[in-house]
Amino acid sequence: MSGRLNLVLPEVLSNPYPHFARLRRDSPVCQVEPGGLWAVTRYADVMHVLKNPQVFSSAGLQRSMLPSWLEHNPIAHSLLVMDAPQHGRARALVSRAFSTSMLTRLEPALRTTAEQLVSALVAQRTVDFLPALALPLPAAAVGLLLGLDPSLFPRFKRWSDDLGAVSATSESDHEGQKRIRHTIQEMEHYLREVVAERRRAPREDLVSALLQARVDGEALNDAELMAFLFLLLVAGFETTVNLLGNGAVLLADQPGLLERLRAEPALVPAFIEEVLRYESPAQSTFRLTLEEVELGGVRLPQHSVLILLLGSASRDEAYVPEPERFILERPQRGNLAFGHGAHFCLGAALTRMEARVALEALLPRIQRLSRGPEPLQWTPSIQLRGLSRLPVEVTPA
Ligand code: HEM
């Protein structure tokens, strides 16, 4: 175990990138802690894994979502942990419902929410950016998408934290297990209500579209539908919170960026792409080898669990020039923030729209965003890169 990089050590969490650069150079495929996972750090190797799902499986990871103490977890039956051919069928069904017109319908309501949140943030001057804007906007987006009552939106953080904690919860942590079971029941209760209502009276919304979607005459069954709604709540919430929070840190630390974006709002989409590359909100995803295989010159046994370090691949010097610099007008080459291939993020367009709407509301209203000298507190996660708090001072425009 000695000598292995531990991804959750505070000094690694505070700045993982020099550690990733060392791994890319010296041991691009190697075991890391916690758990002895096989880390894949180079862009080309990560792409190879994502392009070969017949060897590097997503379905094989289902077990980690259904530990022996948890008898029922809808997300363990979602498309995220399916392989072909089941994945193709489920993805085709939900993609029909998850359409561009759905995004167009959502945007005005999100813009209104963003403007209200920004007004309150500017009035307060000294705020924690996360509860002020980065958390409630994605909560509203997922909540409106799923048709949940706005009074439930503040619960999404706890829901997504609890579901995200399943694989890290030990056999002896009975309190943690109880909390997770309770959260699953609570989520199912509210989501079932929405599904039953939309069955009775369909609307122009995602759940109604999911109920109506057909591929070769087949619809989603109730369990598949619940699994997908759970997945949206988890995959779509904290990732976007991190994108907004990580973007705000860059605006605070590089005031020139904020000035530039205020002067040229057309650069907002380029800023979002570079934040996705530079501080990837989802730092990793996982795969299981179905057979013994060679990767990056290393022989991996059958049933090895791989952690694909997307945040490292997007900073691979063999793929991106000057990867350690934040370059606003970087010629786009496509980064790995949303994955690649069959499981490419279904919410990429939604999250980009949320970030654009947030910045378009924020930029005209603030002249400066400053943060104190205290170090940033990164959440101890091997999968997500985000902050636990972000106190800032706002100078209104
Ligand atoms: C900054 C925000 C986001 C990031 C960085 C992100 C990242 C990712 C990544 C890396 C994957 C691929 C996982 C894999 O290959 O194993 C993925 C899949 C997925 N994402 Fe996102 N995501 C974001 C936002 C969203 C949003 C807003 C939604 C929807 C509300 C969403 C829904 C999904 C779904 C359903 C999948 C599974 C697709 C499949 O398995 O076919 N994501 N996301």
UniProtKB/TrEMBL annotation:
PROSITE patterns: CYTOCHROME_P450 (PS00086)
PANTHER family: BIOTIN BIOSYNTHESIS CYTOCHROME P450, P450, PUTATIVE (EUROFUNG)-RELATED
Identification of the protein by name: Cytochrome P450
InterPro entries tied to this protein: Cyt_P450 (IPR001128), Cyt_P450_B (IPR002397), Cyt_P450_CS (IPR017972), Cyt_P450_sf (IPR036396)
SUPFAM superfamilies per record: Cytochrome P450
Taxonomic placement: Bacteria, Pseudomonadati, Myxococcota, Myxococcia, Myxococcales
Keywords: Heme, Iron, Metal-binding, Monooxygenase, Oxidoreductase
Gene3D superfamilies cross-referenced by the UniProt entry: Cytochrome P450
Family classification: Belongs to the cytochrome P450 family.
